[in-house]
Design goal:
Pectate Lyase C-like, about 475 residues, 15-stranded parallel beta sheet
């Protein structure tokens, strides 16, 4: 009796029998075959479903899934193991060739190793992978991916747990009309890696996943390899929704990183503990970032550090960004934007509305930016920012605009340090330095231990009806 048949018998004894009747059209029980792949290959050309009963299955080769095929397990009790046997196969097939490790991790190709792949390098349609667990240990299959789908359309991954892969848990290369929903991704290199160009990677949904303690980034989206002179990836995926995910404990890089994408909605996510950024967007435009909660993004370097709750930067073209109704706490910086290229030059590509956000208890500043153009910062609340006593060369504060920002409207914001006077660590309420054609009006600013409102070397700064606390001077 085969291992798969033994697993099926075990499932029956536990009351975990397959939910369909064996022999129905387009539906097969993998336990009736010598291998899962044999069951997949036995489906008709029109596709169908392969059910994998509860049990533990060690993969000797990657599973190849073709058009209109559903691979469905019994939930967490269906465990696919990708370890020594699968790694031996990858080595025999020279799956990595001469590709350096960094290229495998961040620029994967179809021929690279994965536990489950779509069957054709040219692409497949309507693949579904659901209700199973895939595990490795990051040593035996060190550079393998859990699930890799390349050039697929209408692919759907749901309720899948992927743990311990040396590369990413899930990779989608040039996917269209596809989704990753309610998956659990832990202890991989990246949790989810979405990579592709604007013509082939479109309309993707990442929703309701738990992404935890991956080595590099929780959810990573990148362009397909086209670069502008500043070195940033551009012309990446178009039509991306990342919503209601829990992303935690990414202490090497970022929770969610998006590079060069277009038409992005990032909403309702909870992000906790990252080193560099909770949400990081470089070169992305036409984006709405709303209703996210970001906590504990701190590299431990106080105001000289880089940890940022929500970061937007390196825009070589107009951003068209809306950042609204987010909560950022206990990070080095709360919300920060800069239009400085990878080479350090000013780009002055703007177009940004920052509205109704709350930043509280961040180490250096609540909100701000450098080199911004054509932006409105309206109705934000920055409370008790500043968590250390800065030296003479450093600042802490509620809001800061610097490095040649121009054509900004900064209106109706509330900035306050409400802590007891002896415990206040907000050095300045608002700083505007080197700005041009900027309006600051109707803001409430109070509680700084040095200056509530500090302006330096501005050209064309208009101030109207700001309510500034009386304890400190305005300069």
């Amino acid at each position: 009796m085969t291992t798969l048949r033994l697993c099926a018998l075990f499932s029956l004894l536990l009351g975990l029998a397959a939910p369909h009747v064996q022999g129905s059209t387009g539906w097969l029980d993998a336990s009736q075959f010598d291998s899962i792949q044999q069951a997949i290959d036995a489906l008709p050309e029109t596709g169908g479903e392969v059910y994998i009963p509860a049990g533990r299955y060690e993969l000797e080769r990657p599973l190849l899934v073709g058009d209109y095929v559903t691979l469905r397990g019994a939930g967490e009790s269906t465990v696919l193991v990708a370890r020594e046997k699968l790694n031996t196969y990858f080595q025999e097939q020279n799956a990595f060739g001469q590709t350096p490790e960094h290229g495998i991790l961040f620029n994967p190709m179809y021929r690279h190793a994965a536990a489950i792949k779509n069957a054709s390098e040219q692409g497949n349609r309507s693949i579904r992978i659901e209700r199973l667990r895939i595990i490795s240990d990051r040593t035996t299959a060190r550079l393998a991916t859990g699930i890799m789908l390349s050039n697929t359309q209408r692919a759907h991954i749901e309720d899948v747990t992927i743990e311990g892969f040396g590369a990413s848990g899930i990779v989608m290369l040039n996917g269209r009309d596809s989704s990753v929903i309610r998956c659990f991704l832990e202890n991989n290199h990246n949790g989810v890696l979405i990579k592709g160009d604007k013509d082939h990677s479109r309309n993707l949904l990442i929703q309701g996943n738990t992404v935890r303690a991956n080595r590099w980034t929780g959810i990573y989206v990148a362009g397909g390899g086209t670069h502008h002179s500043g070195g940033e990836l551009i012309d990446g995926p178009v039509g991306l929704t990342i919503t209601h995910n829990t992303v935690e404990e990414h202490m090497t890089d970022a929770g969610v990183k998006i590079r060069g994408a277009q038409q992005v909605v990032l909403s309702g996510n909870r992000l906790d503990q990252a080193l560099e950024s909770g949400i990081e967007s470089n070169g992305t435009h036409d984006m709405v970032c709303t209703g996210n909660i970001v906590t504990r993004v701190d590299d431990g370097m106080n105001s000289k550090g880089n940890g940022c709750g929500i970061y937007f930067g390196r825009l070589s073209r107009r951003g068209n960004l809306i950042v609204s109704d987010n909560l950022v706490t206990q990070s080095t910086f709360g919300i920060w934007s800069e239009t400085i290229s990878a080479k350090g030059t000013q780009q002055f590509a703007g177009g940004m509305a920052v509205v109704g956000n709350l930043t509280q208890g961040n180490v250096a500043f609540g909100l701000g930016g450098a080199g911004l153009t054509d932006g409105a910062w309206v109705g934000n609340v920055a409370i008790d920012n500043g968590q250390h006593r800065p030296d003479a060369s450093s600042d802490t504060g509620g809001m800061i605009f610097t490095a040649g920002s121009k054509r900004l409207t900064v209106v109706g914001n509330l900035i306050n340090d409400a802590r007891a006077t002896d415990n206040r660590l907000m050095k300045h309420g608002m700083i505007i330095r080197g700005a041009q054609q900027t309006l600051a009006g109707m803001n409430f600013i109070d509680g700084a231990f040095d200056q509530n409102f500090r302006t330096i070397a501005n050209e064309g700064l208009e101030q109207h009806n700001n309510l500034i606390g009386s304890e400190n001077a305005t300069k």
